[in-house]
Amino acid sequence: MDDAELERSSEFAGVPDAFQRLWTPHRMVYIESNKHPVDTADPFCVAPTLSDEKALIVARGTTAYVLLNLFPYNSGHLLVCPYRHVAMYDEATTEELTEMGTLTQTAMRVLTEVARCEGFNIGMNQGRIAGAGVADHLHQHIVPRWSTDANFFPIIANTKALPQLLGEMREQLAQAWPADPK
């Protein structure tokens, strides 16, 4: 990364701070979508209607599927979603939850093989007040972790760099996904 991509606060007018800033203008789509919701379509209902490449879908099951997070914390950040539009964990069927669990296990194995990660953050934010970006559709995060990654939250680490493009990561994970993950 060259110095043109990083700006230090000591070069700004005003009071300097310790942060380095890595400009990520592509995140404005995410930020603006929360301010001015123009498209009310649920992205997790739309994704399965698109090609796997376009929707960044890694694997499809019977009641649930796996896709890359469009706004990842780390390279390989996956989401496991039921096809059915359901908001909360306690509203999902036993079949949906069972398949989400199986897909999560497979995702962990595939990420370990492909990305050589050393651990995972796995979790769900239930409801907008709990931090869910898409609160109306149940989804579970699988975030691969390495001893050398910055931190789970980019804010805490001051800088966040993702070393691999989403399309490349999707292709690698989809190719490594077993035909029968059981």
Question: Which keywords apply here?
Answer:
single chain, 182 residues, alpha+beta, HIT family, subunit A, 5-stranded antiparallel β-sheet, two-stranded antiparallel sheet, 6 helices
Characterize the structure shown.
The protein has helices at residues 28-35, 43-46, 52-55, 94-115, 154-157, 166-176, and strands spanning 6-8, 20-22, 57-60, 64-68, 78-82, 119-123, 140-145. A five-stranded antiparallel sheet has the order 3-4-5-7-6. 29% of the residues lie in helices and 17% in strands. The protein has a single domain (42-176), classed as 2-Layer Sandwich (HIT family, subunit A).
Low-pLDDT segments: none
**Helix- and strand-based class?**
alpha+beta
Compute the gyration radius: what is it? 18 Å
Query: CATH homologous superfamily name?
Result: HIT-like
Number of domain units? 1
Please give the largest β-sheet. 5 strands, antiparallel
Q: What is the N-to-C order of secondary-structure elements (H for helix, E for strand)?
A: EEHHHEEEHEEHH
Distance between the termini: 42 Å
Q: Count of helical segments?
A: 6
Instruction: Describe the strand arrangement of the main beta sheet, using strand numbers.
Output: 3-4-5-7-6
Using the coordinates shown, work out and report the CATH topology.
HIT family, subunit A
Which range does the strand content fall in? 15-25%
Global outline = globular
Query: Which CATH class?
Result: Alpha Beta
Portion in helices: 25-40%
The overall pLDDT, averaged over residues, is 81
CATH architecture: 2-Layer Sandwich
Number of E strands: 7
